[in-house]
């Protein structure tokens, strides 16, 4: 069946249900991962007030004068930290397309990093580069840290569902993600008083790099679109109190293309709705440990179905892909 919508899955039974209910949720997730690589979750247990605080404090940051935002600009090109302005990163470069994204964003990496040699090793860079925090708004740091912790818990639960869906022990991914190198980006897509250039989008077509992505986006014109197997762009319909989940490239590598990391983009608003179409998205990119070896999972390859990808570490793959997007 060719999907023309992104499925909505209630994961509450997986979080607190009987074994049969948990398996049913895992199967639904597995089908979505095979068919389109995207699904929307409800029943996730994330408090709505926390999401609202993230939106509010991020909007206050983006509304600061440019000089204030530039004081916390990205320290180095390979570090996804701090403020990145319009035109400084273009996602479509990563798939060989030349467009400039119409967005700005603020990024952080891991929080609660222990003072241990693993996190200071040469191979740990830039995965554990320090975060860059603005002085204003003063409450931003605490809210971002709280949100990061909530997202890493949710991502860990989804990875357990992934394991069951793949016929693996539920904790299969735990030792590959227990020192994960995940990050948050809060993206501001401004109003578009002037028409974009030909082919220019809020975010060009791209795939994500890690294991999975958790997205929260405002319901305004000019939103997320997903490319299905028929080559059709499918708009992701907003669902109240939900998050959109998509697979990243590493999950596709792990499953030998059984599950798919799908191209997606953020469309421009219609010209008659371009004013008042400012949009904020909160994105959590769940990336396995920097030294986790990504190779074909048991059951996803064999003599008649060889592995399509050479083994690669999570950190190497992420850095290689990320540097392609930096202008």
Descriptive key words:
single chain; Jelly Rolls; alpha+beta; globular; 14 strands; eight-stranded mixed beta sheet; four-stranded antiparallel beta sheet; 327 residues
What does this structure look like?
The protein has one domain (8-323): Jelly Rolls (Sandwich). The strands form 3 sheets. An 8-stranded mixed sheet has the order 1-2-10-7-12-5-4-3. The protein contains 9 helices and 14 strands. The termini are far apart. With 327 residues, it is α+β, with helices and mostly antiparallel strands. The mean pLDDT is 92. Helix 2 (19-35) packs across helix 6 and helix 3 crosses helix 6. The protein is globular, with a radius of gyration of 19 Å.
Order of helices and strands: EHHEHHEEHHHEEEEEEHEEEEH
Please state the structural category.
Answer: alpha+beta
- Determine and state the CATH class: Mainly Beta
| Average predicted confidence as pLDDT | 92
Number of domain modules: 1
Strand order of the largest sheet: 1-2-10-7-12-5-4-3
Please outline the major beta sheet.
8 strands, mixed
Helices, by number, come to 9
Low-pLDDT runs: none
CATH architectural type: Sandwich
First-last Cα distance: 39 Å
By CATH, the superfamily comes out as B-lactam Antibiotic, Isopenicillin N Synthase, Chain
Give me the CATH fold name.
Answer: Jelly Rolls
Classify the helix fraction into a percent range: 25-40%
Name the beta content range. 15-25%
> Based on DSSP secondary structure assignment, what is the total number of beta strands?
14
Summarize this structure briefly.
By secondary structure, this protein is of the alpha+beta class.
